[in-house]
Amino acid sequence: MKLEHLQLQTNNLKNTARFYQEILGLSIVENNSESISIQVGNSILKFIENNNFNSIYHFAFNIPNNKLEEAITWLKNKIDLLVIEDKNVIARFENWNANAVYFYDNNGNLLEFIARHDLDNNQLAPFDSKSILNISEIGIVNETPLELANQLIEKHGLDFFAKNPNSELFSAVGNDEGLLIIVKPNRNWYPTQIPAASNKITVKIENNGTLIELNF
Questions:
Q1: 205/216 Cα distance (integer angstroms)
Q2: What PROSITE patterns does the entry give (predicted)?
Q3: Which of 12, 38, 169, 183 is the most exposed place for a label (fewest CB within 10 A)?
Q4: What domains does the chain contain, in order, with CATH numbers?
Q5: Three-state SS sequence of the chain
Q6: What is the dihedral of CA 168, 53, 61, 206, to 10 degrees?
Q7: How many CB atoms within 10 Å of residue 211?
């Protein structure tokens, strides 16, 4: 499953454009008074301006599985990374066979670079913005995560993420290429103390050749 297009909200379009273009070095492919669209590897990240928006999202980007240390060095020259424990910035997900680092964008959104070691996506070139492969996760907040996950699976032919112990608190739909992370409201977004809140999201996914648009 691939997350081809993700649409979120921001209350500061100008600063958002500056962050993703100047800090992360990504290309803006569309820019007008109401929205911006950013090329993130094989995905498009779109922000719609909403002056009244006062919340945050959590989403992740896949990076080559052999480039996490280089990505850390690259990011540290640009932005502060979140410390997981004992001054270590790397989160290790043994069940998922993945490692990740976290940081904030200008909106306070919780962003993640994740290296998934079951994907064959090694790169030889030094890490830079072109190494970011795609949007790999979007956090979705719902009162009944497991029920919503089952609805998406039944309606759209999706699958539970096999590496995740899906539950009423936290469910994941998709695979290493792309995941819908569904959590209950007020569950803290790891590794922060920020409670998850339900916000408007549009995501376009490709699954086994079928294009699907989901609105939350």
A1: 13
A2: VOC
A3: 169
A4: 2-215 (3.10.180.10)
A5: CEEEEEEEEECCHHHHHHHHHHHCCCEEEEECCCEEEEEECCEEEEEEECCCCCCCCEEEEEECCCCHHHHHHHHHCCCCCCCCECCECCEEECCCCEEEEEEECCCCCEEEEEEECCCCCCCCCCCCHHHCCEEEEEEEECCCHHHHHHHHHHHHCCCECCCCCCCCCEEEEEECCEEEEEECCCCECCCCCCECCCCCCEEEEEECCEEEEEEC
A6: 70
A7: 11
pLDDT tens, the chain, 216 aa long: 999 999 999 999 999 999 999 999 999 999 999 999 999 999 999 999 999 999 999 999 999 999 999 999 999 989 999 999 888 999 999 999 999 999 999 999 999 999 999 999 999 999 999 999 999 999 999 999 999 999 999 999 999 999 999 999 999 999 999 999 999 999 999 999 999 999 999 999 999 999 999 999
> Could you count the other beta carbons within 10 Å of the beta carbon of residue 76?
13
Full-prediction pTM beyond 0.85? yes
3/168 Cα distance (integer angstroms): 23
Cα 63 to Cα 130: distance, rounded to the nearest angstrom = 10
Question: Among 81, 191, 178, which Cα is nearest to 135's?
Answer: 178
